[in-house]
Amino acid sequence: SLENLEASSVMNISELRDGATDVATTVQLTSWTSRTFTGQDGAEKTVWGGDAVDPTGICRITAWSELPIDTGSLPLAVKLNNVRVRSWQGTPDLTVDRIEQVEILDTIPWDTIDASTHSVEVDFSELLTGGSRSGVTSSATVVSVQSGSGIIHRCPECNKAMRDGACREHGPQAGVEDLRLRLILDDGQTNGALILNRQTAEEFLGQTMADIQAATKDDGGEAFLADLRSRMIGRRHTFTGRARIDAQGALLMADRFAMTDTNLEEMANEVRERWGVFA
């Protein structure tokens, strides 16, 4: 109804916040699938979902009613009204409860976006003080390479990182080896933790997990960590990925990661000029 339409808050993806209700937005739907599961009452249920983008970011859509979406016509524009927002792995999730909340548009109201490469540049402090977002790019200085970076062991039951051969929830385990980097980034105003998974870490380091396993076998990774710290701390880096912001703080997860400061001579000259130090 007109009353409901006027009550909706019109937002773009970058403005979505977990727990928001009566949200109106238009997005470009890029994928759409369904899955069937058994509910707590024993009844078989179906839920539909997909990925969506707009010029400001990336989000998920979950629908509890079947929508008139032809997957062969993707990407397409979808106008949503009076939907609610949840969070899914650090990504806003637009939740549709009724088919009446959805309108399929004839055209996408912007140049079609390639969702596989889409990201929006966001100031680091703005990112950490906002809500959970996906498809963002930001830059800050690495101030710490934390212990627990390098080869780790994950619990085979819950996939969480183990310590001293044991999982907090499932006790002593053989563990599955994995690779990750845990960093702290700071822009001079705020700081946050950044995680690089195996694929992103391998691409950044230019080494495979097998290379790092072999290099760290004798000393447990102490030399590997020392080398990382000497190369990374104090240097500006850029990441693309997602930010999970909640009551416990900010956690950044990188899909791509690279050093931004590449000219050491130029950096040294800038430091000399800033502090009035000349050779």
Characterization of the model:
Helices cover 18% and strands 42% of the residues. β14 and β15 form a beta hairpin. It is globular. The chain is built from 6 helices and 17 strands. The strands form 3 sheets. Strands 2-4-5-7-6 form a 5-stranded mixed barrel. A 5-stranded mixed barrel has the order 10-14-15-17-16. Strands 12-13 form a two-stranded antiparallel ribbon. It is an alpha+beta fold.
Brief sketch in words of this structure:
With 279 residues, the chain is an alpha+beta fold.
Give the secondary structure arrangement, pairings included.
Blueprint: H1 2-7, E1 9-10, E2 23-29, E3 33-38, E4 44-54, E5 57-63, E6 76-88, E7 91-96, E8 102-104, E9 120-121, H2 124-128, E10 133-145, E11 150-154, E12 166-167, E13 171-172, E14 176-186, E15 191-196, H3 198-205, H4 209-216, H5 222-232, E16 236-246, E17 249-259, H6 264-275
Parallel strand pairs: 1-2, 5-7, 9-10, 15-17
Antiparallel strand pairs: 2-4, 2-6, 3-4, 4-5, 6-7, 6-8, 10-14, 10-16, 11-14, 12-13, 14-15, 16-17
Distance between the termini: 73 Å
Tell me the overall shape.
globular
Mean pLDDT: 88
Helix tally?
6
Number of strands: 17
H-E string: HEEEEEEEEEHEEEEEEHHHEEH
**Radius of gyration, in angstroms, nearest whole number:** 22 Å
Please identify the structural class as seen in this structure. alpha+beta
Low-confidence stretches: 1-6, 274-279
Q: Which strands sit side by side, in order, in the main sheet?
A: 2-4-5-7-6
Helix content: 10-25%
Largest sheet: 5 strands, mixed, barrel
Binned strand content: 35-45%
